[in-house]
Amino acid sequence: MTHFVTQRGENHPGDPFSSFNLGRHSGEDLTRVMRNRAALCRALSIPSSALVQPRQVHGNEVLSIPPNFLSWKDTEQMEYVSRADGLVTDLPRVCLAVSTADCVPLLFYDSRRRVIGASHAGWRGTVGHIALRTVEVMQGIYGSNPENIYVAIGPSIGESAFEVGDEVADAFATAYPVHRRKIISPRRGDNGRHHIDLWVANRADLLSAGIRDEHISVAGICTYTRNDLFFSSRRAGGKLFGRFLSGIFLH
């Protein structure tokens, strides 16, 4: 099994995409993005066709990759993943990846059944419990035992940088009534806004799914703070910004 997280590459003044933007829907010239994605696949020694992503619509739908998926037409593949924010598979040499720039990338690996998963947990996906949903799909389709699943919570916006208004804070309070005090910080600062800890929220879902605490790895790297290494939507002010990839595949 191989898993990875890319970085933004060399920064160029005035260029929001730097040198290694991998986001197909980021607004950058698609030819350049696809050239970067091809370079990544060469470094991983996999064909470009093996790099598979969900469409990422800020939901909680998780799909399994059918055995003949890579033989489908591009339009058929895109239609299949068009509503998904997470993917799982037991197929070797199929690289599941998610693109992010503050949202939480989640990578899953069942060491017994040899099943992998990759999910995109924005704040909506997090309150939709996509981490829990991914484990449920691995259980339902592949018979995974949560105790055998390892999960990586990748670089994403940290609690100190993730300021939200009442609507988002209320959504987390409803979704996590038991853990709300650990996830939602009291109002602070001049603007009196709440702060949300996405890492704690997703970890809570994983533990409730039966994942062992020692099997959960949190990168602990804030993309907003380390914008020199990773793309950050908030740091870019919601304007043009690139995406980095987090992925995993079986050998």
From TrEMBL:
InterPro entries in alphabetical order? Cu_polyphenol_OxRdtase (IPR003730), Cu_polyphenol_OxRdtase_sf (IPR038371), Cytotoxic_necrot_fac-like_cat (IPR011324)
**GO molecular-function annotation terms?**
copper ion binding; hydrolase activity; S-methyl-5-thioadenosine phosphorylase activity
Coiled coil regions in record: none
Top-level taxon:
Bacteria
Q: Which terms are listed as keywords in the entry?
A: Hydrolase, Metal-binding, Transferase, Zinc
SUPFAM superfamilies in the cross-refs? CNF1/YfiH-like putative cysteine hydrolases
Known catalysed reaction(s)? Answer: adenosine + phosphate = alpha-D-ribose 1-phosphate + adenine; inosine + phosphate = alpha-D-ribose 1-phosphate + hypoxanthine; adenosine + H2O + H(+) = inosine + NH4(+); S-methyl-5'-thioadenosine + phosphate = 5-(methylsulfanyl)-alpha-D-ribose 1-phosphate + adenine
Using the UniProt annotation, give all residue ranges assigned to the region (Disordered). Answer: 1-23
- What family name appears in the similarity comment? Belongs to the purine nucleoside phosphorylase YfiH/LACC1 family.
- Put simply, this protein is called Purine nucleoside phosphorylase
Q: Which organism is it from?
A: Candidatus Caccoplasma intestinavium
Gene (name only): pgeF
